[in-house]
Amino acid sequence: MLKREMKPAHPGAILNGMIEGLREETNQAYTISELANGLGVNRSTLSLILNKKSGISPEMAIKLSEAFGTSAELWMNLQKKYDLWNAEKKVSRESIRHFVSSESNTLQSA
User: Fold this and answer.
1) Cα(96)–Cα(37) distance, rounded to whole angstroms?
2) With helix as H, strand as E and coil as C, how does 33-93 read?
3) What per-residue string of b and e applies to 58-97 under the rule 16 or more CB within 10 Å gives b?
4) Contact 14, 81 (CB under 8 A)
5) pTM
6) What angle is formed at CA 96 by the lines to CA 92 and CA 99, rounded to 5 degrees?
7) What CA–CA distance (Å, rounded) separates 75 from 65?
8) In a structure prediction context, what are the per-residue pLDDT tens digits for the chain, which is 110 residues long?
9) CB 75 within 8 A of CB 61
């Protein structure tokens, strides 16, 4: 269970910040279409991510890592943290039956 109360940033918000930084750093007014084309995806796919309506797939993580000089693991970890935080808010742990005691569960930290 995640202990933190603050919602993690959606990977699209991080990507948006990186794109804005790139625009400022290079004085290039990159468009969504131009960026999407450079990533090998359609404009709507990138727009959904940037607008926090879609998540980062492993394939997109690889594309972003190559395009922005990061690691694919960075993008996947951002997505995982975001998804788990949201799932913790939706799932009622109290209604789930326990099949093993916490003392005998050796897979907890795996």
Assistant:
1) 45
2) HHHHHHHCCCHHHHHHHHCCCCCCCHHHHHHHHHHHCCCHHHHHHHHHHHHHHHHHHHCCH
3) eebbebbbeebeeebebbbebbebbeeeeeeeeeeeeeee
4) no
5) 0.83
6) 155
7) 8
8) 555 689 999 999 999 999 999 999 999 999 999 999 999 999 999 999 999 999 999 999 999 999 999 999 999 999 999 999 999 999 999 999 999 887 766 666 55
9) yes
